[in-house]
Amino acid sequence: MTLSSRFDLPGQIRSVAAQHPSGPLYATTYGANPLETVVSSVDLSGRVLWQRAYPGTGRPRSRLSPSGTLWLARPTDGGGRALEGILPDGSVDRTVILPCRAGEEVAAFVALGDGFCVSWAGAAPMLLAPGWRPSQVPRVARYSRDGQCLWSTPIDLGPVSHPGMLEVNAETGWEVRTAAPRPPEWVEAARWEPLLVSGDRVAAGFADGRSGVGRTFFLDFVSGALVAVTDPGPSRRNAIAGHGAFLVGTLGYGA
Known about the structure:
- This protein has strands at residues 13-18, 25-30, 36-42, 48-55, 61-64, 70-75, 81-86, 92-98, 104-112, 115-122, 139-144, 149-154, 166-167, 177-178, 187-189, 195-198, 201-208, 213-220, 226-229, 233-234, 238-242, 245-248.
- It has 255 residues and is mainly beta.
- The strands form six sheets. Strands 15, 16, 17, 18, 19 and 20 form a six-stranded antiparallel beta sheet that branches. A four-stranded antiparallel beta sheet has the order 1-2-3-4, with no helix packed on it. It has a four-stranded antiparallel beta sheet with strand order 5-6-7-8, with no helix packed on it.
- The model has no long low-confidence stretch (mean pLDDT 85).
């Protein structure tokens, strides 16, 4: 696979995907501002084949399905959330409306053969009407192809800390000590691989937005029941290890 050494796209690139080594590449970026999302199709010479702009969330999310449809999470005109299916020629295949609660945003999603799995977390403050606050209760939900919710499981991150996190303040007598577990100020999806689906299991990562310390939650794919959860730790890399199995990385923070 060869590519032009450099080509320019609008805004900041948030994700790049390709279905085949021969291209094209699909790039999801900010537009003129974070509340505009731009999707571009680029061939291997760097030529832009097509480009589409959509209302943005400040946190563009897209996933390329095995069939070649690029799914993009975006706001709807009525303030809701939708997944837009974009075909290889740039036309829209279909739009799936996802029922959502006030103050929450699509934090991550996986396109499945028969629907979608979605992590929900607090929306960016710039998207909220005056007086509204980001949702404090993240959740994971599974949907059918037409957007019907099959299950929705609330996630309780709980107070978090880590041996490598230190604090010094009046409470510690101005001595350096391991930070005590504290409730998160806000909860967001884990930075890397926030949502994975394999076999009969879902691995969903959430973290304290201030410290980055979080957990990975494992749920039953059919029922949504919580099966297991990791100990708190800094943002980590996760991967699918096999059918219903995952690898969970660790970071030390010096501990």
